[in-house]
Automatic annotation (TrEMBL):
Pfam families, per database record: BBE, FAD_binding_4
Protein name: FAD-binding PCMH-type domain-containing protein
Keyword set, alphabetical order: FAD, Flavoprotein, Glycoprotein, Signal
Family of the protein in this entry: Belongs to the oxygen-dependent FAD-linked oxidoreductase family.
Domain FAD-binding PCMH-type: 66-242
Cofactor field: FAD
Length: 515
């Protein structure tokens, strides 16, 4: 009796140890408890585990019963808690994933695609922003949202801003790690082009800043994608000047109203306009919407558009003048939203989504646009969102940061499709895949470039060879995101985390120079 019981236990333990052992999980939790206040730790049995896990999930596709969930969520309130988590994780062979705003398109900040025991470090509580108005700089914690950053800047001055994304709930941590693109990109570049310093907890649990981290690591964290190099706790950014009023417009053009001709022209006009003017295009069904911000008055904008882009038919009635901070809720939440609404961190979990991206370096011919609109007319079709580059974006060499999509890019395309939780999304994901295949001849090639912040695991996933992810296998997706910078990223990874502790399905594999 006793012996068969212990045999059963032995079988149970050996089974568990195949999936990273129970012993190391226990050891990890004990180690955490010794270093971090209990109320900052949420194990799966904690009553609040689910609400903490779901708190910033943006894509509910990754919040289902079959989603692989963390063993524990750590919500640090101090850098030392993050350092202790890394040390405990290394000692007990438990990997960690870091979450800032939870907007990752593939949910990699809080779920694992394959069964594994892992912990989530959720930085949402580390979210302070301190603005130095005189110096026009700010320190922002990774757990802040870009809405919180914008808000804090506007409280200090209405003549300062920061060039980053348009969705206020996006987390600074993941967003800056991958680039950070918004309506100021033609004037001031991406968020990473305006990062001056950062603090990082590395794979040894050390707290580093620009002075103490390797030069290549400071280069790598500004665009090399989240997770790979450690946990960035905070960023020092350079704030940028904006006029007291900016002018916004949004003009929809249906195919019947000439959308195809206007888009064909937009491709070459929008990336060549003065840097103060940004006109993006969003296509849904048979309508292209041209959405714009101009760093100046309506009168000046009318003159400019009259000479450069008369086809759009801009007139006085389209212009909405407002402060830069008012443009943030206006563009993303609609014209009834208030500036305070950009502080609302609650994400609406209404729809499942899938996205991917492209870069266009040669204008797409008009007859191809006709075909594109046929794709978009299908009942299962999604949308296309296109941001023009040029201006400041082109002023940086491809190797200045890991983000390589610079001179020569006309615009990027984001393809997105949505469906409700209650419905089967397979027709919608198939549409996205088929449309992406159709677009191949018309977009950048060798490599077909993609933006890491629009993460798509269909571009390729890491393969573990020995103890680490394979550089060779990573080239498939790595060159799309980073072009020739992928190798330097892998070498930076090899310097700071040769054991590949900070790993996920698309983290940078370590390359260690052979002696
Ligand atoms: C609704 C929506 C709108 C968007 N709009 C834009 C836009 O306008 N412009 C644009 O450029 N992008 C946009 N994005 C994409 C967005 O920039 C990326 O999804 C970004 O990675 C999200 O950052 P996060 O902190 O919210 O995500 P998270 O899911 O928390 O993190 C993303 C990745 O970074 C890692 N990571 C997170 N925090 C850290 C950290 N502190 N240190 C190291 N690694 C970290 C995570 O492990 C994960 O791998 C949008 C996304 C959504 C869902
Ligand atoms: C402005 O353009 C719109 C079409 O986009 C048109 O309906 C409107 O009459 C125009 N207004 C003026 C004042 O020209
Ligand atoms: C915050 O946003 C959520 C999701 O969009 C919304 O349901 C909620 O009403 C908002 N809360 C406030 C206080 O505006
Ligand atoms: C994997 O790592 C362990 C311990 O760090 C080491 O002993 C082993 O040799 C490594 N295996 C390979 C294939 O590198």
């Amino acid at each position: 009796m006793a012996s068969s019981q212990s045999l059963a236990l032995a079988v149970l333990f050996s089974f568990l140890s195949c999936n990273a052992s129970l012993a190391s999980s226990d050891g990890f939790l004990q180690c955490l408890s010794a270093a971090i206040p209990e109320q900052l730790l949420y194990t799966q049995s904690s009553p609040s585990f689910t609400s903490v896990l779901v708190s910033s999930i943006q894509n509910p596709k990754f919040f289902t019963p079959s989603t692989v969930r963390p063993l524990v969520i750590i919500t640090p309130t101090d850098a030392s808690h993050v350092q202790a988590t890394v040390v405990c994780g290394r000692q007990n062979d438990v990997r960690i994933r870091v979450r800032s705003g939870g907007h990752d398109y593939e949910g990699l900040s809080y779920r694992s695609k394959r069964p594994e025991v892992f912990a989530v470090v959720d930085l949402a509580t580390l979210c302070s922003v301190s603005v130095d108005q005189k110096a026009a700089t700010a320190w922002v914690d990774s757990g802040a949202t870009i809405g919180e950053l914008y808000y804090a800047i506007s409280k200090a001055s209405n003549l300062l801003a920061f060039p980053a994304g348009i969705c206020p709930t996006t987390g600074v941590g993941g967003h800056f790690s991958g680039g950070g693109l918004g309506m100021l990109l033609r004037k001031y570049g991406a968020a990473i082009d305006n990062v001056l310093d950062a603090t990082l907890v590395d794979a040894k649990g050390r707290l580093l800043d620009k002075q103490t981290m390797e030069t290549d690591v400071f280069w790598a964290i500004r665009g090399g994608g989240g997770q790979s190099f450690g946990i960035v706790l905070s960023w020092k950014v350079k704030l940028v000047p904006v006029p007291p009023r900016v002018t916004m417009f949004s003009i929809p053009k249906s195919v019947n109203e000439g959308a195809i001709n206007i888009l064909t022209k937009w491709q070459e006009v929008a990336p060549a306009l003065p840097e103060d003017l940004f006109i993006m295009a969003i296509i849904k069904k048979q309508v292209a919407k041209f959405q714009s911000m101009y760093l100046g008055t309506c009168d000046a904008l009318l003159l400019l558009m009259g000479t450069r882009f008369p086809e759009l038919g801009l007139n006085q009635t389209h212009c909405k003048e407002m402060t830069w901070i008012q443009s943030v809720p206006y563009i993303y939440l609609g014209n009834t939203a208030t500036v305070e609404d950009i502080l609302n961190r609650t994400t609406s979990m209404n729809s499942f989504s899938k996205a991917t991206s492209d870069y266009v370096r040669q204008a797409i011919p008009k007859d191809t646009w006709v075909q594109i609109f046929t794709w978009l007319a299908k009942p299962e079709a999604g949308i296309m969102i296109m941001d023009p580059y040029g201006g400041k974006m082109s002023s940086f060499p491809e190797s200045a940061t890991p983000f390589p999509h610079r001179a020569g890019v006309l615009y990027n395309i984001q393809y997105m499709n949505f469906w409700s939780a209650a419905t089967d999304g397979s027709a919608r994901t198939k549409w996205l895949k088929d449309f992406y295949t159709f677009m191949a001849p018309y977009v950048s090639q060798n490599p077909r470039e993609a933006y890491v912040n629009y993460r798509d695991l269909d571009l390729g996933e890491n393969v573990v060879v020995g103890n680490v992810t394979s550089y060779q296998a990573g080239l498939v997706w790595g060159q799309k995101y980073y072009k020739g910078n992928f190798q330097r990223l892998a070498m930076a990874k090899g310097e700071v985390d040769p054991d590949d502790y900070f790993r996920n399905e698309q983290s940078i594999p370590p390359l260690v120079a052979s002696k």
